[in-house]
Amino acid sequence: MHVDNIVQDLLARQNEILEGLCTFLRMPSVSTDPAFAAGMRDAQGFLLEWLKRMGLENVQLFDGGGHPAVYGAWNGAPGRPTILIYGHYDVMPPDPIEAWHTPAFEPTIRDGKLYARGASDDKGSTVIALETIAAFLRLRGGCPVNVKVFLEGEEESGSQSLREIVHRFGPLLRADAMISADGGRASVTISTINVGCRGLVELEFSIRTADKDLHSGRYGGAVRNAAHEIARIIASLHNDSGAIAIPALMVGVPHPTREARDQTARFPFNGVEFVEEVGAAAWGETGFSVREQLTLRPALDVNGVWSGYTGTGSKTIIPNSAHAKLSLRTVPGQDVRQALSAIKAHLSAICPPDVALTIHDNDTGAPAFSLPETHPLVMAASKVLKGATGQLPVLVRLGATVPITVIFQEMLGLQTLMFGFNLPDEDVHAPNEFFRIASLAEGLSSWPRLLEELGKFECADFRPVETSVSAT
């Protein structure tokens, strides 16, 4: 059966597929909050049954000590490449609940958009991938490639047990390449392919200036104030233009190549509108466009800071402690451990000697990821998207971090194509998250053709690299 017939069948079944997606979305599979444990179990059961029903084998949960991943495989295409299909079934908490126009776990369609927590990130695109596999098996009796499905349950909570899962189940995850349903498109109007993303380093620090909070009338003007001190420390992280002001951190940052800057410039992007549409003010490293700042340069941000009394009314104290959370987005070629060490050293140096400093981190981080332009994944995706849009896709990098890409590259030697169909304005992680109904059709048209194109390659074309997981 020709791949066009597979696509036509999927498009004809859009209402049925949408109904199944809505069933999935009603399951509150929030991984970060134990109160949603039942929703996580419901989603696991839903997926296990679905994978078995579509004809996958060895369907099971991969337990790494946290929320398990869901796995299934079809190995009926001997000699053809094996593609690992990635998605995640967990979602972010719905808070603040009162900001939703309709309940977060009651899918609602308005103006061609499906509103629900997880609709865009990442259940919509995951359903597209699974429906594609199911259609090939049902109509053709087999897929153009061997497929292994891996659906993570901790993507939204830091993928804490992902490495342990790979250690325990690495042989079952062996493949030639991976396609991720996570990591969506960069533009509503321009065809794009994600070929990389920034890395991530996180830490939290606290300072203490006295044994207890003090009365501001009795001690004000004579002792250090923890809130003042943490504000001074935070202000030292950047210069007046917004560039990172930690020399030891920036020493390890490669300057973007001319090729990378030219590639970034090919993506139509209005930096002024980008900033203004969220009511923000431009502020960042000079000498780089906004798009380059977002994708080719590191970004150090304060994610939260707290100290003293923040309740209703006043409480005239001098706080004795203050706390802050930081995140650093790293770029290709930047060592995450060196970056973390540089931040720690700066905090220690800038903190006054009579102020106690405590730094909390897990000594880990996700490096930046890059997918070579000549990889079969990029070649196949380019052909499919050009055929669908008439445009040669623009290669772009994400400013965000997708930990699965670097973890699977490091541990399994896999390169990853991010082929999700969500779009950047769909309020991911925020109230009123949505997924465009039109994206469902676009994904159902493209995923079958992508698998068909990949089936034309030889396994050797993917050039697997040495891995740290030994087969058993």
Q: Can you describe what's shown?
A:
Mean pLDDT is about 95; it is low at about 465-470. The longest helix is centred in the N-terminal third of the chain and has 21 residues, at about 120-140. Helix 2 (about 15-25) packs across helix 4 and helix 13 crosses helix 15 (about 435-455). This protein has helices at about 5-10, 15-25, 35-55, 120-140, 160-170, 215-220, 225-235, 245-250, 260-265, 270-275, 290-295, 335-350, 375-390, 405-410, 435-455, and strands at about 55-60, 70-75, 80-90, 110, 115, 145-150, 175-180, 190-195, 200-210, 215, 300-305, 315-320, 320-330, 355-360, 370, 395-400, 415-420, 435. The relative contact order is 0.19. The protein has 15 helices and 18 strands.
